[in-house]
């Protein structure tokens, strides 16, 4: 497993760099989930916009909507608590 720690000033592109790396790996998969944790509603909206632009798969922002049915391949954006609750619910 790859591990990556990034520190840099706010607004310099850390999130975009991480998303591009994740998208490169995720776009080659036939199915699965790309889960992105966001600490604020504003960040989740920015991530949702980037993912929606780059992916043909559904992008679900847990800050803005309920998940409903989970597609075979999708990206999910949410807070750690939202993703944890989703994980418990789906088990």
Please summarize what this structure is.
The protein is α/β, with parallel strands linked by helices and 91 residues long.
Mean pLDDT across the residues is 84
User: What characteristic shape results from the CA principal axes?
Assistant: globular
What share of residues is helical?
40-55%
N/C terminus separation: 24 Å
Low-confidence stretches: none
**C-alpha-based Rg, rounded:** 13 Å
Quantity of strands, as a count: 3
SS class? alpha/beta
Report the biggest beta sheet as strand number plus sense, adding barrel if it closes.
3 strands, parallel
Strands side by side in the biggest sheet:
1-3-2
Count the helices. How many? 3
Q: What pattern of helices and strands is seen along the backbone?
A: HEHEEH
DSSP strand (E) fraction? 15-25%
Question: How would you describe the overall organization of this protein?
Answer:
- The protein has about 90 residues and is α/β, with parallel strands linked by helices.
- Helix content is about 40%, strand content about 15%.
- The chain has three helices and three strands.
- A three-stranded parallel sheet has the order 1-3-2.
- Helix 1 crosses helix 2 (about 40-55).
- The mean pLDDT is about 85.
Topology record:
Elements: H1 14-26, E1 32-37, H2 41-54, E2 59-61, E3 73-78, H3 80-90
Parallel strand pairs: 1-3, 2-3
Provide tags for this entry:
globular, 91 residues
